[in-house]
Specification:
The protein has 276 residues and is of the alpha/beta class. The protein has a single domain, classed as Rossmann fold. The chain has helices at 5-19, 68-72, 100-111, 124-135, 156-166, 169-181, 188-200, 213-217, 236-246, 266-275; strands spanning 26-33, 36-43, 50-54, 76-80, 117-122, 140-146, 223-228, 251-255. Strands 1-2-4-3-5-6-7-8 form an eight-stranded mixed sheet, sandwiched between helices. A hairpin with a 2-residue loop joins strand 1 and strand 2. Helix 3 (100-111) packs across helix 4 and helix 5 (156-166) runs antiparallel to helix 6 (169-181).
Length: 276
């Protein structure tokens, strides 16, 4: 998964530096699931309602550092490193076609002693949340989908734009990052961390499965979808249109000038969790 031990160490050192800037007390937990060790960053009052945060592909739980303080005022927060991504969990990348990731998440809830939780996921993390909700609907209280994979199609054209740029080293990676971000400003430390991951990590190449109409219709829990109209990786309009058709009661926000990476959405998400 990592291209070298030194590259892995560089990524995890960054992870720890970002985590050290967390403004609220937290603890790191290692859970022994059937799919290997899983790292969880936990904060907030243990008696508060639980939420599970799931990062995107090629990322880790440090991406939530700007949001954790706001969530922890109201919730017991569990930011989970997905196996097969550049965090502190099991390094093996399991196929997305089977039941591995829904079984893994079920282990996570069981080991955290949670009967149910609300889920917030971005990109592949949103796909993981839907995948789990399809298999275990009674264990999902709310589901927040940020730039979700699995509802609308991926934009294959982006791959053809990105691959040549990656051949041009640092400048090429910077250009790809700007395309993914939709030209919005990302904190410098986070931007450097993303670039380091791009240099030292082998990204998933497996296509992300699309959920069926039946699977999406049968999701009975409240859903919030946040998508960016300038998303170069996923077709945001088709994502919005399809979920609107299948779940007309879903809360949907399409941000006009935003790309795939959408940050600082706690002011939308917390009221949704509290009021639905």
């Amino acid at each position: 998964m990592f291209k070298s031990k030194s590259g892995k160490d560089a990524i995890l050192n960054d992870y720890n530096r970002i985590l050290a800037k967390c403004t609220v007390p937290f603890e790191e937990m290692l859970l022994n699931t059937q799919y290997g060790e899983t790292c969880v960053i936990a904060c907030g009052e243990p008696s508060s309602p639980p939420i599970i945060l799931l990062h995107g592909s090629g990322s880790n739980s440090s991406m939530w550092i700007g949001d954790i303080a706001a969530y922890s005022k109201h919730y017991r927060v569990y930011a989970v490193d997905i196996p097969g991504d550049p965090g502190k969990s099991e390094e093996k990348q399991y196929t997305l076609k089977g039941q591995a990731y829904s079984e893994w998440l079920d282990d996570v809830l069981r080991l955290l002693q949670l009967e149910s939780a609300s889920f917030i996921g971005i990109s592949l993390g949103a796909w993981m949340a839907i995948h789990y909700a399809v298999k275990h609907p009674s264990k999902v209280n709310h589901i927040v989908l940020i730039s979700p994979s699995g509802i609308g199609p991926q934009k294959i054209s982006f791959l053809f734009r990105a691959m040549p740029l990656l051949l041009f080293g640092e400048k090429g990676r910077d250009k790809v990052t700007r395309l993914v971000n939709g030209n919005q400003t990302i904190p410098e430390e986070a931007s450097k961390h993303v670039k380091k991951i791009a240099r030292h990590f082998r990204f998933r190449s497996e296509p992300v499965p699309i959920f069926t109409d039946t699977e999406l219709r049968e999701l009975t829990m409240p859903i919030l979808l946040i998508a960016g109209a300038k998303d170069v990786m996923l077709d945001a309009k088709k994502t919005v249109d399809r979920l609107t058709k299948l779940r007309p009661d879903a809360h949907i926000t399409l941000l006009p000038d935003v790309g795939h990476i959408i940050i600082q959405q706690t002011s939308r998400i917390i009221p949704f969790l509290k009021e639905t």
